[in-house]
Amino acid sequence: MNFLRRCLLILFCGLAWTAASATGLATCDSGSEDTWQPQSKLKEQLEARGWEVRRIKVDGGCYEVYALDDKGERVEAYFHPQTLESVPTDKG
Question: I want to staple 60 with a disulfide (CB 3.0 to 4.6 A). Which of 5, 22, 32, 90 is the partner?
């Protein structure tokens, strides 16, 4: 029984760490969420460029956007939630 408890504790700690860590390729020092611009404004700006926005979510303190660009290419891009400026990624 003690072995089972240790295994469950290790599993729980691993899952908690995974859920708390950012999964994306960018990190933003974005401050409090009440200072962020709405996702709808970012969506409007991207659609004005000819993008077809599929999804916007928060990851690493940034807005992570999944879209098709004006050429129909799949895009995963990051934007600062306060300025809505593009954020470089850590692709290696």
Answer: 22
C-alpha dihedral over 14, 23, 68, 77, to 10 degrees?
170
Residue-wise pLDDT tens digits, 36-50: 999 999 999 999 999
Q: Which tokens sit at 50?
A: 């000819």
Q: What are the sequence ranges of the domains in the chain?
A: 2-87
Q: What percent of the chain has pLDDT over 90?
A: 60
CA dihedral 28, 53, 34, 82 (to 10 degrees): 50
Rounded to 10 degrees, what is the CA torsion of 35, 39, 40, 46?
120
Can you tell me the distance from the alpha carbon of 92 to that of 79, in angstroms, rounded to the nearest whole number? 19
Q: Which of 83, 66, 64 is nearest to 74 (CA)?
A: 66
**In 3D, which of 66, 62, 72 has the Cα closest to residue 27?**
62
